[in-house]
Amino acid sequence: MYYDTDNQWKAAYNNASLTCNDRERLLDPKNYQIIRLAPSAKFIDEHSSCEIIEKNNESWYHCFGKRSFFSMRPRWWYFAIGNCDSQNGLYLEYSLLMTNSHNKTNRWKYHFSFDEFYALPISLLFLFLIIVLLLSSIIFSYVLKKRKMLHITFRLFLHSLFCELIASTLLWMHFDRYADDGEGMPLLKFCSMILRQFSIVLFVLLLFLIAKGYTITRAKISTCSSIKIVFFISAYFILRLLMLGWEIIIFDPAQITYMSESVPAYCIIYLNICGWIWFSRCSWVTVKKYPLKKRFYIFMNIFSTFWFWSGPIVLIIANFILDNWVREEVVQGVDSAIITAGFIFFLTLTCPFCKAKHFPYHIRTNQIANQQNNFPNNVYEIGAVQNGTTNNCA
User: Fold this and answer.
1) Bridge partners, residue 218, by sequence
2) For residues 302 and 278, is the Cβ–Cβ distance under 8 A?
3) Cross-strand bridge partners of residue 50
4) Confidence (pLDDT) at 377
5) For 78, phi and psi rounded to 5 degrees?
6) Radius of gyration over alpha carbons of the chain, in Å?
7) HEC string for the chain
8) How far apart are the first and last CA of the chain?
């Protein structure tokens, strides 16, 4: 049994210069890191032993037992099977149950790795928050629809929020099952990660449409801008999927790695910074043409700075500052918090019950067809256009 230090597992694994005996000599017998799987072997506890059994007219070694680990800090433990000084291979059937608590009723820790101790409560907390946000969004949608202000951008927000709801539900279901059997439902966890990428990409698309003033100051976006948005969003979505695939296909399970260490993750950092610059520029152009929306876009720029820069900052902290044994749950909590904060912020700005200057919509959905590419600056100009007193609203 090796643990995660430079002179243990890192020295033994994938090191072609070491023989089987050399790898064995890396272990300290005083720490009981070597377990002899033989009937004549001596074990440190009375519950462990090996015996010879007959199975299909063949003799088998049947070994069973338990082992407790105590260390100064959380560690990763690696099990390696060796048959040194032998010309024959080994056929092994094994079953391991590794727990982090002697108390089976402690569902938050018993089956979970140390870096996932709070994965279940974190997933449950943010699932509850997302449900509250979705219910609030449904109420807002009803009010906006009655006022004929349920625009495409708000509907896009609802799609993003719904994807996050399904993702959070699946993730909670996985961890809840994992707390009971130590296996969970990996397929649900994978689907949850995919749906979260959909949610994030839809929200980024929403930010770009808002920056261009779509449904706020204009009814259409130019072909050139549409192509740029499609290209950026497609690249962003592909990179986020590649980041997940990189962790599954490229990363070695025997190494301590996280998906933020992948090449696509660093490419996403670059896109985040480019997206923030583009959002800021588009917002500035929109405000220059429509000064009455200045208050709304000031808030949006403050938020977009937080949104686009949080990803790079979290990645750098996760890869270079956080200890490996806390990274998983910290990143899970921070990512969920950033996504939830985005939903809360957008709902606050679009709250139909608040008579605030930062409310973005002033054109009704049934009036968009009567407008040209650009909307009038306020509702009074709309009336003038409909009465035929104004020929140009742009």
Assistant:
1) 214, 374
2) no
3) 63
4) 53
5) -120, 130
6) 29
7) CEECCCCCHHHHCCCCCCCHHHHHHCCCHHHCCCCCCCCCCCCCCCCCEEEEEEECCEEEEEEECCCCCCCCCCCCEECCCCCCCCCCCCCCCCCCCCCCCCCCCCCCCCCCCHHHCCHHHHHHHHHHHHHHHHHHHHHHHHHHHHCCCCCHHHHHHHHHHHHHHHHHHHHHHHHHHHHHHCCCCHHHHHHHHHHHHHHHHHHHHHHHHHHCCECCCECCCCHHHHHHHHHHHHHHHHHHHHHHHHHHHHCCCCCCCCHHHCHHHHHHHHHHHHHHHHHHHHHHHHHHHCHHHHHHHHHHHHHHHHHHHHHHHHHHHHHHCCCHHHHHHHHHHHHHHHHHHHHHHHHHHCCCCCCCCCCCCCCCHHHHHHCCCECCCCHHHHHHHHCCCCCCCC
8) 73
CB atoms near residue 276 (< 10 Å): 20
Q: What percent of the chain has pLDDT over 90?
A: 56
Cα–Cα distance measured from residue 58 to residue 43, given in angstroms and rounded to the nearest whole number:
25
Q: What tokens were used for 166?
A: 């399904």
Q: How confident is the model at residue 180 (pLDDT cuts 50, 70, 90)?
A: very high
pLDDT in tens, 278-303: 999 999 999 998 888 899 999 999 99
* 302 vs 306: CA distance, rounded Å: 7
Mean pLDDT of all residues belonging to the chain: 87
